[in-house]
């Protein structure tokens, strides 16, 4: 820890995803991992032993020794876990969704601005090599079709199955909502959405069609009860069709030319999107150090709030629709806890 150019970081929540934050920070040449914290001492001790990291019994004691922290706790705990860190003047990266409600997320963004800290949101697909390519061709996007399908998460004794504390809209679809908002530079005009709970007490499968004020349109489907995982994103432009498979890291471009249609297959370089996200966060902190002015990460809190606002509106429309037709399910944020 003698290198002052390194950022002293900590990780709060080292479950399925937070464990990888700890692992990748530990591998980074730009970070020194001060330690980790988890509500479960057993989980914290296991990860601490695995990577040779100090385990803290109190998250605020960990934060006192850090310049920056990742927060990877359940979404319903993001607000209460993050606000104290921001009030301490710490730079923070929060996993998606930014919070379980728009009100909580907005409060977090205001607090980050008030304390002039770097505030990033873990929309990791923005660092996927497929998105690196798509961002270059965002102009003139007219139609997007996204499918994000996953298997039902395994049980976690004494806790929610991972992600099921919120709807699949906030759990999985929010990735594609964020990507669509980046690809289509226009305000939402209207949308139609349907979804139902299947195995949990929140929506497990959802479909939505969004129309934008510039005439563009997006269809998105998200499911966490699929037998075959899939992450595909297809973009239709005025003279071009682009298909990307996030999971398989390959894509295809079909473009009209003078003699007909030309196809180009794209072999995307493999990269660890989460590692790239963490390095982007660290880089923003270093630039903030140098300039004395807060430098934005690739996915700042404001963009996380924008995606969450649309996601919550979609979720609300689904519940209004289900209530109208008499399909009843539990209140937001409620899901089964495995015994």
Indicate the topology.
Blueprint: E1 7-12, H1 18-27, E2 31-37, H2 41-51, H3 59-64, E3 68-71, H4 78-87, E4 91-95, H5 102-115, E5 119-122, H6 129-135, E6 141-149, H7 168-183, E7 188-196, E8 205-212, E9 217-223, E10 230-237, E11 240-245, E12 250-257, E13 260-267, H8 273-291, H9 301-324
Parallel strand pairs: 1-2, 1-3, 3-4, 4-5, 6-9
Antiparallel strand pairs: 6-10, 7-8, 8-9, 10-11, 11-12, 12-13
Helix pairs in contact: 4-5, 5-9, 7-9
Write up what this structure looks like.
It is a single chain. By secondary structure, the chain is of the alpha/beta class. The chain has 9 helices and 13 strands. It has an 8-stranded mixed β-sheet. The protein has a 5-stranded parallel β-sheet with strand order 2-1-3-4-5, sandwiched between helices. Helix 4 links the parallel strand 3 and strand 4. The longest helix is centred in the C-terminal third of the chain and has 24 residues. The chain is globular. It starts with 6 loop residues before the first strand and ends in a 15-residue tail after the last helix.
The mean pLDDT is: 91
Please give the alpha-carbon distance between the first and last residues.
42 Å
Strand order of the largest sheet: 7-8-9-6-10-11-12-13
Could you tell me the strand content as a percent range?
25-35%
Number of strands: 13
Structural class: alpha/beta
Number of helices: 9
Helix content: 25-40%
What summary fits the major beta sheet?
A: 8 strands, mixed
Q: Unreliable runs, pLDDT <50, ≥5 residues? A: 331-335
The SSE order reads EHEHHEHEHEHEHEEEEEEEHH
Oligomer, anyone?
single chain
What would you call the shape?
globular
The whole-angstrom Rg is 20 Å
């Amino acid at each position: 820890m003698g290198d002052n150019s390194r950022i002293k970081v900590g990780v709060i929540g080292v479950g399925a995803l937070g464990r990888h934050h700890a692992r990748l920070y530990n591998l980074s040449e730009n970070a020194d991992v001060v330690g980790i914290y988890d509500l479960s001492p057993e989980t914290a001790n296991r990860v601490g032993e695995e990577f040779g990291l100090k385990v803290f019994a109190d998250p605020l004691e960990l934060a006192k020794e850090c310049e920056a922290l990742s927060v990877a706790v359940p979404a319903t705990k993001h607000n209460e876990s993050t606000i104290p860190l921001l009030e301490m003047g710490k730079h923070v990266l929060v996993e998606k969704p930014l919070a379980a409600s728009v009100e909580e997320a907005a409060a977090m963004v205001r607090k980050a601005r008030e304390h002039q800290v770097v505030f990033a949101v873990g929309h990791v697909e923005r660092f996927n090599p497929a998105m690196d390519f798509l961002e270059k061709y965002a102009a003139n996007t007219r139609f997007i079709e996204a499918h994000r399908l996953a298997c039902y998460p395994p049980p976690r004794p004494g806790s929610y199955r991972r992600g099921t504390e919120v709807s699949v809209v906030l759990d999985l679809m929010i990735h594609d909502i964020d990507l669509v908002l980046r690809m289509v530079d226009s305000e939402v005009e209207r949308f139609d959405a349907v979804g139902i709970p299947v195995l949990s007490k929140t929506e497990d499968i959802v479909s939505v069609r969004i129309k934008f004020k510039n005439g563009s349109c997006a269809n998105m489907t998200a499911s966490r009860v699929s037998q075959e995982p899939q992450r595909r994103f297809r973009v239709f432009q005025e003279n071009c069709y682009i298909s990307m498979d996030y999971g398989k890291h390959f894509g295809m471009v079909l473009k009209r030319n003078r003699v007909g249609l030309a196809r180009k297959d794209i072999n995307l370089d493999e990269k660890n999107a989460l590692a790239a996200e963490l390095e982007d966060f660290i880089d923003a902190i270093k630039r903030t150090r140098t300039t004395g002015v807060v430098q934005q990460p690739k996915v700042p809190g404001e963009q996380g709030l924008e995606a969450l606002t649309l996601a919550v509106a979609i979720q609300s429309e689904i519940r209004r629709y289900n209530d109208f037709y008499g399909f009843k399910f539990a209140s937001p944020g409620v899901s089964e806890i495995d015994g």
